[in-house]
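Service request form, structural biology core

Requester: graduate student, group of Dr. S.
Request type: structure prediction, single chain
Budget code: on file
Notes: please return the result as structure tokens.

Sequence provided:
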Amino acid sequence: TIEKENVWLSRLPEGASSQVRRVASRFAMLDAAGDLAQAITGWTPEECQAATKQAFDDWLQDFGLENREKYQVVSRARDFIQRHALSRFQPYTFGKSNGDMDRQYAARISNLAGYLVNGRRDDGRPEYHIIPTVFDEEILCGISRNFGCKALEDAGMMVCAESGRWTTKTVKVNGTQQRFIVLTDQPEE
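Core staff response, request fulfilled:
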């Protein structure tokens, strides 16, 4: 099976991600299992290999050579912002006392996700200051914070003071400065 795995890995294009390499290794195991099951399936080794290769090629066509988890994190972050921007984020005006928050509006927010901050950026775009536990549970969904934040940084959505430092003390809420994950809503490329 090591020989099969080496053959499958050697077929991959130069820029294949580690996820694609792992998937190719699993298809190599299917190829080897097909060889072992000849008596049951009635397939020749060549037929089994061709069917397995076709299934792998179809998978590549659907998912590409990139790391799928990166796409999922960026997609979930965009969806989260678009779905909850007006229902789970408290509007906050940067530079105003306590963000000039509307207490009546705040009372209507159940399950606060963070703050929609205006007036902090030169380009005028709003920032979403997300509570770290909400970010971990509802956007990353089990993916490591370092990996997810790097994917968002690569997509141009992550706002951080320095690369690799994902939480930032940015705004004061009720007199206390808190740490948030800060994102902007970048249009898809």
